[in-house]
Design brief:
This is Chemotaxis protein CheW. The chain has one domain: OB fold (Dihydrolipoamide Acetyltransferase, E2P) (Beta Barrel). Helix content is 11%, strand content 43%. It contains three helices and eleven strands. A six-stranded mixed β-sheet has the order 1-9-2-3-11-10. A five-stranded mixed β-sheet has the order 4-7-8-6-5. The radius of gyration is 16 Å and the shape is globular.
Length: 171
């Protein structure tokens, strides 16, 4: 089942040329808002149960068949250290293209599509565990801070659980 969500658009005026605007899709995981470039989003679909894989990283929810393509689904809640998502019919999978792969991100909900001036993107604070290295930048939208995800890091490393899992394999 493919869901088409009516997403409003917020446009921020800027004296910069059109090429200096970044269009992002925002979505929620718990009480946090994240964003990714709209060009990386292939589609948004309703939750569909996945088939777990043995010995998969903790943030890999499993795989599903998307019109003949086997798609790995990553639980973003697990990646950021908030535990495993108890997925319900209200959750969605954001299907993305990243690093020559198509993958799915399990999130609570998709919020909006927004245009953000590139100059408004701030670097994430240099913290020891800045969302576990998954954040490429931050944007202030009204009074809310949106964390822009580095999807390559989400898929490669998995965030919070990955270092412990790697250490366990080494020991």
């Amino acid at each position: 089942m493919i869901m088409t969500l009516p997403l409003g658009e917020k446009h921020f005026s800027s004296a910069q040329p059109e090429s200096a605007v970044r269009r992002i899709v925002t979505f929620r995981v718990g009480d946090r808002t994240f964003g990714i470039d709209v060009g990386m989003v292939r589609e948004i679909k309703g939750w569909q149960a996945t088939t777990p894989l043995p010995h998969a990283a903790p943030h890999v929810r499993g795989v599903l068949n998307l019109r003949g393509v086997i798609l790995a689904v990553y639980d973003l809640r697990t990646s950021i250290g908030l535990g495993v998502t108890d997925a319900t019919a209200t959750h969605v999978i954001v299907v993305v293209d990243v690093e020559d792969k198509t993958a799915g991100l399990l999130v609570d909900s998709v919020s909006d599509i927004v245009d953000v001036p590139v100059s408004a993107v701030r670097p994430a604070p240099d913290l020891e565990r800045d969302e576990h290295g998954l954040i490429e930048g931050l944007v202030l939208l009204d009074t809310e801070i949106v964390a822009l995800l580095d999807l390559g890091a989400v898929i490669r490393d998995g965030g919070a659980e990955a270092p412990a899992a790697r250490q366990a394999r080494v020991a």
